[in-house]
Amino acid sequence: MAILCPSTAIYHLLFSSLLLFFSCYVSGIPVYGAEEGKDGFHSTPVSSLLPKNKCSASARGGSQGLPITQKYGPCSGSGHSQPPSPQEIFGRDESRVSFINSKFNQYLFDEDGNFLVDVAFGTPPQKFTLILDTGSSITWTQCKPCVRCLKASRRHFDPSASLTYSLGSCIPSTVGNTYNMTYGDKSTSVGNYGCDTMTLEPSDVFPKFQFGCGRNNEGDFGSGADGMLGLGQGQLSTVSQTASKFKKVFSYCLPEEDSIGSLLFGEKATSQSSSLKFTSLVNGPGTSGLEESGYYFVKLLDISVGNKRLNIPSSVFASPGTIIDSGTVITRLPQRAYSALKAAFKKAMAKYPLSNGRRKKGDILDTCYNLSGRKDVLLPEIVLHFGEGADVRLNGKRVIWGNDASRLCLAFAGNSKSTMNSELTIIGNRQQVSLTVLYDIQGGRIGFGGNGCSK
């Protein structure tokens, strides 16, 4: 019987391991690392990057809090018409970004790319579908009678049908009993304040909640939307008015169009915190406190593409800063940061053909690929490096945007040089899709985690 010496045995073991690895590679069996993101790349089905027209979610709400749906997605149940074109989406997105850049206005809203939740006002409760917006602090819905009513809205709050409604404000520091909201795309809502019971869930009922009663509303607020749920930091926001119970804590998972996300408040939100990575909220430019900022400012330090740091100086993101926004669709970066991201992404995607299609007017995405006829694409992972070691990893639809395999684009854009405050960084909702994002305002922090939505 032959006896192998230790060195020979080790040689045979190494040879066998290499042979097994090579066999797996050539036969197409996934090798951990190359296929699973270990090297900063993910093998992604091209079909998964395209819009879906069928709702695949199996549950709505319950222990998962308030269900969130994409406004024009198949899960919204809003009887939506044809979704807007990419050019319409990008045009409205640019309006919002310009408005944010020019005014840092906390009472701002943009209707496209937003997400819907159902809440109720009054006794007995009257249910409405509102748009979730972290960039606004006033919650409002249309009321009867209205001088101008939104064409796409199906419902109106009837004050006379509620036993607990009172006209005017119930927060002493409110200036006046009327509101006048003008948004980034020139849509408007004008009306009076009213106070009534707000019901989020059967166990979460808030008497004397102050909201806007829209009497004169103009613009395209989107299919099925009756108003807005303001989740900003102002005194009139839902976050502030429910602080006695929820301690200014909420979280959401913004879903893909074919699934349902969730909006959680208070203890339901904090129950997820152990699995999240947190970064500090910081003051906005020229402010002395978080509430004055209006938006949620954080500290972005750098970006990686395919496990390679771009080494962008943190000062590029520091002034006027970085905000997390649920209403902006595509993340905007200062030109210096975007140029570095674009160059690294193109290098990582060098083996794929660029799209030959002409950019249409208003198209803000300039790095696009023709992946027609391909089953899979090896996408580089993009990592946003926030302060305190909070690294947010992006792949799939958080990296790519497109309606057709012949034109799939990097889902980031550089700020227009013509915009005031063009150095502002805005983390849009495309990059937040399917992530858990937790806002702990009293704790002064925001947390991020993966796979927060049920499919």
Set out the fold topology:
Layout: H1 6-27, E1 41-45, E2 66-70, H2 86-103, E3 115-121, E4 126-133, E5 140-142, E6 166-167, E7 178-182, E8 188-201, E9 204-218, E10 227-230, H3 238-241, H4 243-246, E11 249-253, E12 261-265, H5 266-270, E13 277-280, H6 290-293, E14 296-298, E15 300-305, E16 308-309, H7 315-318, E17 322-324, E18 331-333, H8 335-348, E19 368-369, E20 376-380, E21 382-386, E22 391-394, E23 400-404, E24 407-410, E25 412-414, E26 425-427, E27 436-440, E28 445-449
Parallel strand pairs: 4-10, 5-9, 17-26, 18-25
Antiparallel strand pairs: 1-20, 2-3, 2-12, 3-4, 3-8, 5-10, 6-8, 7-8, 8-9, 11-12, 11-27, 13-28, 14-17, 15-16, 15-21, 19-24, 21-22, 23-24, 27-28
List how many beta strands DSSP finds: 28
Strand pairing plus helix content: what structural class? alpha+beta
Give the termini separation: 59 Å
Query: Which consecutive residue ranges, at least 5 long each, have pLDDT under 50?
Result: 1-36, 59-63, 104-113
Strand order of the largest sheet: 3-4-10-5-9-8
Strand content: 25-35%
Averaged pLDDT, please? 82
Largest sheet, strands/sense/barrel: 6 strands, mixed, barrel
Number of alpha- plus pi-helical segments: 8
Cα gyration radius (Å):
24 Å
